[in-house]
Write a structure and sequence with these properties.
Blueprint lengths: L1 H12 L7 H11 L7 H5 L16 H18 L2 H20 L23 H9 L9 E3 H6 L2 H6 L10 E4 H4 L20 E5 L4 E5 L1 H7 L12 E4 L18 E2 L10 H11 L6 H11 L35 H12 L9 H6 L7 H14 L1
Parallel strand pairs: 2-4
Antiparallel strand pairs: 1-2, 3-4, 3-5, 5-6
Helix pairs in contact: 1-4, 11-12
Length: 375
């Protein structure tokens, strides 16, 4: 309405405001709208905030808009139905203000750090991509939970020794994101997200690589039959719609076999390391409860092999001990780091970290429907 006309005139008047500081300030002063009003000024029925008149002389287009708006105003004042609708609107506004609650989350910004430069692709990573086997004693391929032990959360809460026997690894290039400062303390807030995993079916080993390494490995992955390794894309499921990434078959180079299913231990450990908040209840609930030291529901079998009877799943599928002496507290703090301060208390992992029972989604929906019928 009138505000559009006022801004249009200002834009034409200060066309060169980007080059003149004084004109820029004058232009911004017109664009700014006052926010400090009392409740009486905003909602009193007989006291309306009047806008300053618009100087549209010399601009035929804007003058036409202003005249049409004046005609509309006059018609509104003379229409009883419109006035009644405006009265109801004022009542609704009062109701909205009455129940309005302001909630502001303050996220601590990370301290400034210098970005680390990428190193050339190490021969050990290239060897794994071409052969599917890790080089014995390689310092470039680090076990994922050993890397977690070196984080600030891992140093304080610890990682169990049984977790370090997992066949999930990360590369050194993936783990280094910023140049260490003088204190030498870990910078968990700069942890890199998990986007690419190199999977070797012959050795049941997963290697998390950086985007830089994945770009170099793409033409190096051998196209043999059967393939030696697969480069799999991944994103930690932070919404229910992202659970499809938990199956690890969204996209891979070369394409995965149609009947391939990701090992339960790999999806579980990858989810812990990447900081996922949602997972497939039927396939992952039992494994996640074991990793967090929670009792496994009787309705779900603890034998994880029965769901996925494939030859590349062996000892990793057996029931595991908690991955940390304080797994629930560890996951709460690690998820806070991974999610950059976003609230995750109402997610599946958030419920488990608070020690709450996680019902099967279908059962919960049926129970809610039954309760609504009874009411």
């Amino acid at each position: 309405g009138l505000e559009f006309c006022r801004r249009r005139i200002a834009a034409q008047r200060y066309e060169e405001s980007g080059y003149d500081f004084d004109k820029s300030r004058s232009y911004l002063k017109i664009l700014e709208q006052p926010e400090k009003y009392s409740l009486e000024e905003l909602y009193a029925p007989d006291r309306k905030i009047k806008s300053a008149p618009i100087q549209s002389s010399g601009n035929a287009e804007i003058s036409g808009y202003v005249n049409r708006l004046d005609v509309l105003k006059a018609e509104i004042r003379n229409t009883g139905d419109t006035m009644q609708a405006l009265a109801h609107q004022e009542v609704e506004q009062e109701r909205e203000v009455a129940i309005e609650v302001e909630s502001v989350r303050e996220v601590k910004k990370p301290h400034h750090a210098q970005a680390a430069s990428h190193s050339p692709l190490h021969r050990d990573v290239r060897s794994f991509a071409e052969t599917g086997r890790l080089v014995a004693g390689s310092h470039v391929c680090i076990q994922a939970f050993v890397a977690l032990r070196k984080t600030a959360v891992g140093r304080r809460l610890g990682i169990a020794d049984n977790a370090t026997r997992s066949n999930l690894y990360i590369t050194q290039d993936y783990s280094v994101t910023v140049v260490p400062d003088r204190s030498g303390l870990p910078r968990d807030e700069y942890s890199r997200p998990v986007n690419w995993v190199v999977w070797s079916p012959s050795t049941s080993t997963g290697l998390i690589v950086s985007d830089y390494e994945a770009n170099i490995l793409l033409p190096l992955i051998p196209d043999t039959i059967p393939p030696v390794t697969y480069l799999i894309t991944y994103a930690a499921p932070i919404t229910k719609a992202m659970i499809i990434f938990d199956y690890l078959n969204f996209f891979a180079v070369p394409p995965l076999p149609p009947n391939w299913r990701a090992p339960t231990w790999l999806v579980r450990d990858l989810g812990i390391f990447a900081g996922r908040t949602y997972f497939d209840y039927d396939k992952q609930h039992s494994a996640v409860c074991q990793a967090l030291g929670l009792p496994v529901p009787d309705s779900i079998s603890a034998d994880l092999d029965r769901e996925m009877p494939f030859p590349d799943r062996d000892v990793q599928e057996k029931p595991a001990e908690p991955f940390s002496p304080s797994p629930l507290l560890f996951m709460q703090e690690w998820l806070a780091v991974r999610r950059k301060g976003q609230d995750f208390s109402q997610t599946m992992m958030g419920e488990l970290c608070q020690g709450r029972r996680l019902d099967k989604p279908e059962v919960r929906e049926v129970e809610e429907e039954a309760e609504s019928v009874v009411e």
